[in-house]
Amino acid sequence: MLTRFIFSFIILNTASAEFNYKLFQVTATTFEQKRALINLSKSTSNEFVETSKVYSLTDLVLVPFEFVNATEDYFITRGMTYEFLDPRDVLPATTFHSKHEKFSYNDFYESQIVHKSIIKMVNCSASKPDSPVRAEIFSFGSTYLKKSMLAFRLGRKDVDKEKSPVILIDATIHGNEWIGPPAAHKIIEQLLFNATGHELMKKFDIIVAPIVNRDGYDESLNSFHPYIHGRKNRKPTKDGCLLRRNEGTDINRNFDWFWNSTELTENPCSENFRGEYPNSEPETIALSKLMETSKLIFYYTIHSYGNLILYPYGNTDEKVHNFENMRKVALAGKDAMESTFEIEKPYKVGSSLEILRRTSGASKDYAAGKLKIPISLIHEVGGRRPDSQPRVEDIKTYVDIVWTGFTAMANKVAELEL
Predict the structure, then answer these.
(1) Are residues 237 and 277 in contact, defined by beta-carbon separation less than 8 angstroms?
(2) Are residues 78 and 211 in the same domain?
(3) With contact defined as beta carbons under 8 Å apart, do 310 and 377 qualify?
């Protein structure tokens, strides 16, 4: 039986700073029509399509305004039906971000403000004589635009740093997934000031890198169309793209583990471009080196595309080493989040290939496959809104969900013999 396939296009007038575009919802009911949409997503001759996840049930693909008529003809000649939607019912507000100087969980903030707030918390903790926490702030690299990539290592003063197992948390590899910075901020806050965090650090040192893709994140946050800006880094591609927003490499397709083994990453102007060669990007190199931290046993990376906890691999159905333990850890997180919060859409647990689609060059796969880190998981936070963004009013809930899930997973890691 043929499955109904929904595909959405944003048609933008790039010459205007106002909402001046059309939003198509297209229905493809045959394999040939689905293939036509996939082929459309690969078109690069005139930047016909900017971004695509055509294997999803719904998606947003940006088409330059001058191709609106051609796009309609493309659908009509292939027998596809479509309708126009009101963009206001689908697209996020463009004022999510804030330039306020004080961080809170009521808005999204530029990277500098997030880092400033975390540094202030660390200094506050350090000023308390009775605090059990030891903390380090360090730069583990620089982005293409020479922004410092900051990380925070937290542990207990009464635990030997050299002997403590390590957890590495990163967020915002994809710059347009804004929940990453507040989620990382929340984790650090709880580790510094909360008894549960203090207990957890009896078992681990924890390194947190809140914003891996600072260039993409800051551009996305200040963009008129944040959902299509900033997923990739800002390093220009070799042959260039007609539209600057198409430039860059998807850092999470650039790691040296079965790099470029899926055709969807070859288009240099697509949102999933894998880079010129493995580990070609400064952000990838920096994070790869951070993963080599001594005694690292759990790599946990925060994204925002649906309620998912994924373990390796994305390129093969072969089970990852330590599969049973990874699944136990993921299920512990799922159970804790769903038993604590009213989560509308239950979490799915599985490999990236099982639950999403075939991918390659991902950080979690590199951590498990190349570096043999015992536990490597990606936490996809939030419901699948078309733009992968939580609403501002949901930030507080989402960061609490992340903290609950993370602590449950970390405690399960501590129980296992790794």
Answers:
(1) no
(2) no
(3) yes
The closest alpha carbon to 7, from 33, 45, 44, belongs to 33
Domain end: 89, 120, 155, which one? 89
Cis before 313? omega within 30:
yes
In eight-state DSSP terms, residue 245 is G
Residue 378 belongs to domain spanning: 97-415
Contact 227, 389 (CB under 8 A): yes
Kindly report the CATH number assigned to the domain that includes residue 222. Answer: 3.40.630.10
Same domain, 72 and 160: no
Per-residue CA distances from 350 to 28, 63, 148, 358 (Å): 28, 33, 34, 13
Together in a domain, 184 and 216: yes
219/59 Cα distance (integer angstroms): 21
Those residues with Cβ within 8 angstroms of residue 166's Cβ, 6 or more apart along the chain or in another chain: 204, 205, 206, 207, 293, 294, 295, 296, 297, 298
108 lies in the same domain as 76: no
Q: Which amino acid is at 48?
A: F
pLDDT tens, position by position, 158-203: 999 999 999 999 999 999 899 999 999 999 999 999 999 999 999 9
Domain boundary residue among 64, 89, 114? 89
Residues sharing a CB contact under 8 Å with residue 105, sequence separation 6 or more, in sequence order = 182, 186, 395, 396, 399
Do residues 336 and 379 make contact, with C-beta atoms less than 8 angstroms apart?
no
pTM: 0.79
Report pLDDT digits (tens) over 340-353: 999 888 999 999 88
| Whether residues 29 and 174 fall in one domain | no
